[in-house]
């Protein structure tokens, strides 16, 4: 079985310090949380950025500064900027971090309700636009899918040339408006993927660790982090992103699954080696 790639989603665009004081906003806080996650075993840092007051932004220069600061401390980590941004942002606003030519970036594959009146909009034309941009810039997309229909959309657009092989999916499960995070849902989603694809599971809230366990057993990969879940166990706030990664590492070791370092993760995902 392949070694386990752990992604740390360190801050997101919606979670705040009111949810957990460890959620990073500033450049220094992002470096701290990325480093703690990396030292615990994460190879990929899934990155949103904020202004210092916590307001989400897709500003290219903010991404440039934060990525540069992280890379000074953990130069071999895979930094994966989000192109999801926040609800209400335009396509070109969301795509700004791709101008920095990261190795990977996220590509959301459908529209869904995000609670209340919020709608996270990703039309077919938006997905085509993002996919074509990433092909042109040589960026590997992580295909964010929140239900089965989004997997189907990704496969259709792959056939049309807007998404290239080898495909890598992130099964985001447990979001209000998307598929739930029960084991039956994981089995349904996982077996809807093409055999040659790789995948990561991101369980939201209480689904984070049960779905991590399922992915570890199945041979998939795992995403954890304060973006998705602020608790390390029921009622106990996580002290850091590193603590969440550490828990996944312990789970993997109990199940006999080794942890991939960034060099090994690049090979598994089909990314170019550094240097």
Please characterize this protein's 3D structure.
With 275 residues, the chain is of the alpha/beta class. 36% of the residues lie in helices and 19% in strands. The strands form four sheets. The chain has an eight-stranded parallel beta sheet with strand order 5-2-1-12-11-10-9-6, with helices on both faces. Strands 3-4 form a two-stranded antiparallel ribbon. Strands 7-8 form a two-stranded antiparallel ribbon. Helix 5 links the parallel strand 9 and strand 10. It is globular. The two termini are 27 Å apart.
Short description:
The protein has 275 residues and is an alpha/beta fold. The protein contains nine helices and 14 strands.
What is the topological layout?
Blueprint (H helix, E strand, L loop, with lengths): L5 E4 L17 H14 L3 E4 L1 E2 L5 E2 L2 H14 L4 E4 L9 H4 L9 E5 L3 E2 L5 E2 L3 H14 L2 E6 L2 H12 L8 E6 L9 H8 L7 E6 L4 H11 L2 E4 L6 E3 L2 E2 L3 H14 L7 H8 L6
Parallel strand pairs: 1-2, 1-12, 2-5, 6-9, 9-10, 10-11, 11-12
Antiparallel strand pairs: 3-4, 7-8, 13-14
Helix pairs in contact: 1-2, 1-8
Sum up the overall morphology in one term. Answer: globular
Which secondary-structure class do the elements indicate? alpha/beta
Oligomeric organization of the protein chains: single chain
Overall pLDDT, averaged? 97
Helix run count: 9
Query: Distance between the terminal alpha carbons, to the nearest Å?
Result: 27 Å
Pattern of helices and strands: EHEEEHEHEEEHEHEHEHEEEHH
Report on the biggest sheet.
8 strands, parallel
Q: Please give the number of β-strands.
A: 14
Low-confidence stretches: none
Strand order of the largest sheet: 5-2-1-12-11-10-9-6
Radius of gyration: 17 Å
Tell me what portion of residues adopts beta-strand conformation. Answer: 15-25%
What is the percent of helical residues?
Answer: 25-40%
């Amino acid at each position: 079985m392949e070694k386990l790639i752990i992604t740390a989603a360190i801050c997101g665009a919606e979670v705040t310090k009111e949810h957990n004081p460890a959620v990073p906003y500033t450049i220094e806080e992002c470096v701290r949380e990325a480093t703690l996650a990396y030292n615990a075993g994460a190879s990929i840092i899934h990155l949103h950025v904020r202004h210092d007051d916590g307001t989400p932004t897709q500003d290219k220069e903010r991404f440039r500064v934060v990525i540069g600061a992280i890379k000074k401390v953990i130069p071999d980590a895979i930094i994966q900027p989000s192109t999801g941004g926040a609800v209400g942002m335009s396509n070109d606003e969301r795509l700004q971090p791709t101008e920095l030519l990261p190795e990977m970036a996220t590509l959301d594959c459908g529209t869904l309700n995000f609670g209340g009146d919020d709608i996270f909009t990703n039309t077919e034309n938006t997905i085509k636009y993002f996919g074509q941009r990433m092909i042109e810039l040589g960026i590997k997309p992580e295909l964010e899918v929140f239900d089965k229909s989004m997997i189907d959309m990704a496969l259709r657009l792959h056939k049309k040339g807007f998404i290239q092989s080898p495909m890598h999916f992130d099964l985001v499960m447990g979001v209000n408006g998307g598929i739930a995070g029960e084991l039956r849902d994981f089995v349904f989603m996982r077996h809807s993927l093409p055999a040659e694809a790789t995948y990561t599971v991101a369980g939201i809230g209480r689904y984070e660790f049960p779905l991590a366990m399922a992915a570890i057993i199945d041979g998939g990969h795992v995403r954890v982090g304060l973006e998705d879940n602020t608790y390390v166990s029921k009622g106990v706030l996580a002290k850091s992103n590193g603590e969440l990664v550490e828990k996944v590492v312990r789970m993997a070791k109990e199940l006999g699954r080794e942890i991939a370092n960034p060099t090994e993760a690049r090979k598994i995902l089909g990314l170019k080696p550094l240097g």
